[in-house]
Write a structure and sequence with these properties.
The protein is mainly α. It is about 80% helix and about 0% strand. The longest helix has about 35 residues.
């Protein structure tokens, strides 16, 4: 059985905290994207789904923050994520008020979030927070399937017009 030195253990905790901070920020950013999508899209079904997903991303961020507060060092910093670019792209697409375009952009942002979670699952193997990360990932994938189905319905409808 291998034992870790205090330095190795602290380094591992720091890497975990950094990964969780990145996921925390990505969820906050994703929540903002969905909230903005719900605000500007004219289709009520799309707005309702976006509002629901905004609340979920906020909940994920709160759960990660709670874990960080309870288990990790308080001296970690937030990390800027690639979700910011998705946010800018999404804002630009909102001018068209096209539900399919809005859904496509939210899916693009969620693909990035899913990838970040998949990397975290690999990096956090054996870590007590892994169960939380795996649950978030399962739910994000289910949400993406839901949004994809809605996107395809709008895309087919628009193609038929």
């Amino acid at each position: 059985m291998a034992f870790r030195s205090k330095a190795e253990s602290k380094e591992s905790r720091s890497a975990t905290a950094e990964r969780l901070c990145m996921l925390h920020q990505a969820n906050l950013d994703g929540g903002r994207v969905f909230r903005e999508a719900a605000r500007v899209v004219s289709d009520e079904s799309v707005a309702a789904i976006c509002e629901d997903l905004s609340r979920k991303r906020q909940l994920y961020a709160e759960e990660l923050e709670e874990y960080l507060t309870e288990h990790e060092s308080a001296d970690h910093e937030s990390i800027t994520t690639v979700v910011h670019r998705a946010w800018l792209d999404l804002r630009a697409s909102f001018s068209s008020d096209n539900p399919a375009a809005v859904l496509a952009e939210t899916l693009r942002g969620d693909r990035r979030l899913r990838t970040a979670y998949e990397e975290a699952v690999k990096d956090l193997s054996g870590n007590p927070v892994l169960g939380l990360i795996q649950r978030h990932l399962r739910e994000i994938k289910a949400d993406m399937a839901r949004v994809t189905a809605l996107y395809e319905a709008f895309h087919q409808r628009d193609a038929g017009e």
